[in-house]
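Table S2 (text version). Query chain:
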Amino acid sequence: MKLRPVLLVLLLLSGFYYVTTHSSSAGKIFPWLHPATQTADATTTDAVTGPTGTFKLTQASAAPAFDTEEQQNIGVYKKALPSVVNITSTAVAFDFFYGPVPQEGQGSGFILTKDGLILTNNHVIGNAQRLEVLLSDTQKYKAHVLALDKNHDLAIIKIDAPNLVPVTLSDSRNLVVGQRVYAIGNPFGLNGTMTRGIISAIRSIRSPNGSPIEDAIQTDAAVNPGNSGGPLLNSRGEVIGITTMIASNGADQSSGIGFAIPINTARAILDDYAKYGYIRRPTLDIVTIPIGPDIAEQIGLAADYGILIERVLPGGAAEKAGLRGGNQKAYQGNIPVMLGGDLIVAMDGEEITSPQDLAAAMNSHRAGDTVTVTVFRGRKRLDVKVTLGDARDQQGLSGQTT
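Corresponding structure-token output:
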């Protein structure tokens, strides 16, 4: 009689062991012992049994929520994408037999106004005979050029399309190295591509035509052919620059060093276009000769650097300010030049040693601004106040015109 409770306990333990070590039985008899397989990050395991055995896949039980960084990326993309366009330019070249051969190029741009003004790079437009703009909704429109600024590598074009979404322009004066940026464009013709990086540096560079671009934005966001003309954005989806070029070291693809024109540089030409219907480029209205040590020694100048004024244009800014051109005929190779004019060595206190220096100084001003030009007249150093003119009427002049 005393063995009966002991045997009963042993029987119960044996039965419990058997049930818990056979999953199929446990699932039927005690379903709470083996709930559906679930991991800590809300995943489930699905098993499929076939001739090769059991194949198990672990999958999420629900779509994961985006983290804060991902939400920001998505927000920037959704805000800016409707304003970014793909630009196809078609020009006509001639083959060896002078037969016309159409040539196409692609770039990017972004919508400035609801009525269809678009900003892009001048080198995207090139010498195109036909321009076509593809919107983010895949609608295509013909475009025409309104204004070009080759020195800053900028162009304004226009399309006639409904329901356009313009970008929001930011201020590029207070950008900081390390700041997060986004580039949206059409690299290699892949529409609507976004890349992300930081501002790597703020530095002066030269545009594809050799003109200086002050305070260009250097970024490690991937930039490739086709990105040119597209927007560089801050973390709020506002435009801080116009993607322009890459440092490729001979490889036609991103090397982690891309450059954008600061949007404040573009604002000046946009203001000009809004006020006057064209872009006003500041000018001194002079024809010049660059001076180096050899030439300076030959003609006995007071400084071995600078820009020698060969002639001033009648009625222009330099003539009105009293600057003087040359009065002695000479030859530079087989080209006749006039010597004896004022030698420009500084503007607003900044040394001018080359035409590039003068171009950079002019880029920081607008037509109508008054500047102080430092010159040597013979051996005498003078500071002359000059109100800058408008370069619109300088076409057709020979020599280095500024």
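Notes on Table S2: Residues 70-93+105-158 form a domain with the Thrombin, subunit H fold (CATH 2.40.10.10). The mean pLDDT is 83.
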